[in-house]
Amino acid sequence: MSEVAERLKQLRELMKREKADVFFIPSSDDHNSEYVAPHDQVRRYFSGFTGSAGTLVVTLDDAGLWTDGRYHVQAERELAGSGICLYKVGLQGVITTQDYLKKNLRAGSVLAANGYVIPKMEQRKLAEICEDCGASLRLDIDPAETIWKDRPKRPSNPVWRLEDRYAGESAKAKLQRLRESMREEEVTAVAVGELESAAWLLNLRGSDITHVPVAMCFVLVTKDDATLYIAREAVSEELERDFAEDGVKIAPYEDIYKSFARFKTEDIVWMDSARVNARLYESALYYAHVYDDTLPISLWKAIKNETEVANIKKAHVEDAVAMITFLREIKEEFTDGSMTERDVENRLLQLRSERPDYIDLSFETISAYGPNAAMMHYSTSETSNATLHARGFLLVDSGGHYKTGTTDITRTIVLGPLTEEERRMYTLTLKGHFQLSSAVFREGMTGYGLDILARGPLWEQGVDYLCGTGHGVGYALSVHEGPNAFRWILREDTKDIVALKPGMITTDEPGVYEEGKYGIRLENELLCLPAMDTVYGRMLKFEPVTYVPFDRDAIDVSLLEPVDIRRIDEYHEFVYNTMAPHLEEKERTWLFKVTRPLSIGE
Questions:
Q1: Distance CA 546, CA 525 (A)
Q2: Average pLDDT rounded to a whole number, residues 413-440
Q3: Does residue 454 have a pLDDT over 60?
Q4: pTM for this one?
Q5: 20 to 30 A Cα–Cα from 420, which one of 32, 261, 366, 537?
Q6: Domains 160-299 and 303-594 share a fold
Q7: Cα dihedral angle (486, 489, 493, 494), rounded to 10 degrees?
Q8: Domain 303-594 is in which class?
Q9: What would the mean pLDDT of 108-115 be, rounded to a whole number?
Q10: Which residues of 508-527 are buried (b: 16+ CB within 10 A; e: fewer)?
Q11: Which residue from 26, 33, 98 is spatially nearest to 55, judged by alpha carbons?
Q12: What SS3 state is found at 319?
């Protein structure tokens, strides 16, 4: 019996003891985080699927895992032989988790979950399903407590603070802004459960989650004080005094759940049910009223201030030095079989770590050669580390955290001869990339309205990619941060349908993924800026803050219109003018050659 099968057997034995018919296991932690610490990788433990996104549902005689298009290929491989059925979210005819639950629940059934890792908004949906089926919902079972014997401890690594010269605004000023919003909304307190929001509010950074500079914590703010609930050992005495100067007290992490006892029934606590867990929400509701709405912090941290924007451009210059050095090396020095995918990862890590203000990678580098690149979030392992050959594509998706900002860039690199299909798909992907980045649009537009610009050239060929076109990027925080994004399909109840605003950073990364053949992704970060004021209102535009060339060896100019060629040439001229002063002569000479106009041959 496989490890996963044995774990599922133990889970079902627990379910029988607890009289639970169905168990619901999401991928999140107590803060609804996208990426979680080893302690919270419960869904991974019980399924064997290592991707960051997925939901596991286990019945007494069946099990299913739902994940999106980024992980379809990977999940199929990792779930093989586990007894867990893969449900590919985004494909036609695939049953949803909600319909699966309705199919497996009936009058008297019990649906169980761990309420500490279920957002309150999700709990409401589960409760509605149970009510419709005549079933009941239990949120008091953590299966990992009894089954996962060697479960890692909850992380409590030392934290640090981002200086004002990087953040552009002090924690004291941010708290004052929040209290002004509290007065406007007439609430008594604000409870912050999302790790990135807590970090942004207090200019706090940590390392509790791999490649995400956050600390496991909650923040509770009233009109008169603020409390950071965090592991005591994570905060030095010096840092505690620093927090005290900002009016912030330190309390044990678990104390947040009993902190609401200080309030009266007429008090109002502001919480976002999409970003706090059900147990925390119910703890507040036991003592006071809850005002359930998106916190203003979500939008504030998405709109970068002038200092952050200036710093972000510096971060991308430093990151581009590393990327351009790597690209020159692999384009000029690579020989067939001389490198593996992991060699690429290690070289990029070395180059980035040498740059000023470097903190960490912003995510695990994706170095995917040939068919491996068809898995959007592929990662190398002891058993998967392809040797690179002088043919086809190498896809490299990578980035870094710097005190000056966070980078995220993907380049698909030609290592040798391409097929006609590979060249055509690369060119059409690049065309869509620049159609989006060149857009001028009315203020008030969301990313949902602009997404078609990137997908259009591929849709015309009957091709698509099963993920969003772009996501927001934090400032030395999570590389994936909303609420801004580029998507074509509405995700109801996620509270991410917001207008694009000047200061927002969003990625532009269309792609093509052909299982067993190749993968293409072309990604820049875009800064939203004012374009012009007209009688119809303000127009906005984008400025790329990624300064790295695309691979002209993959471009079929015959597939491009003159406007496409002009956009590519203008971007490459912009890249050269921005980066030339920061490069060594060898890299500068190479960059000049690869950024020349497309009309100029070799």
A1: 6
A2: 98
A3: yes
A4: 0.94
A5: 366
A6: no
A7: -30
A8: alpha beta
A9: 97
A10: bbbbbbeeebbbbbbbbbbb
A11: 26
A12: helix
160-299: CATH topology is Creatine Amidinohydrolase; Chain A, domain 1 (3.40.350)
pLDDT digits (tens, 9 = 90+) for 207-243: 999 999 999 999 999 999 999 999 999 999 999 999 9
Question: How high is the pLDDT of residue 600?
Answer: 72
Instruction: Give CA–CA dist 205/211, Å, rounded.
Output: 12
Half-sphere exposure of 260 (CA within 13 A, CB side): 24
Q: Pairing state of beta strands 524-534 and 537-544?
A: antiparallel
Q: Which CATH number does 3-147 carry?
A: 3.40.350.10
The whole-angstrom separation of Cα 426 and Cα 416 is 14
Domain boundaries, the chain: 3-147, 160-299, 303-594
Pairing of β 55-59 and β 22-25: antiparallel
The mean pLDDT of 538-552, rounded to a whole number, is: 98
Give the CA distances from residue 144 to residues 10, 114, 153, 342, in Å, rounded to whole numbers and listed in that order. Answer: 10, 10, 12, 33
Half-sphere exposure of 556 (CA within 13 A, CB side): 14
pLDDT of residue 308: 98
pLDDT band at 493 (very low <50, low <70, confident <90, very high): low
Question: With contact defined as beta carbons under 8 Å apart, do 267 and 190 qualify?
Answer: no
Q: Quote the CA–CA distance of 590 and 516 in Å, as a whole number.
A: 33
* Nearest in space to 417 (alpha carbons), one of 388, 390, 387: 390
DSSP code per residue over 50-79: -SS--EEEEESS-EEEEE-TTSHHHHHHHH
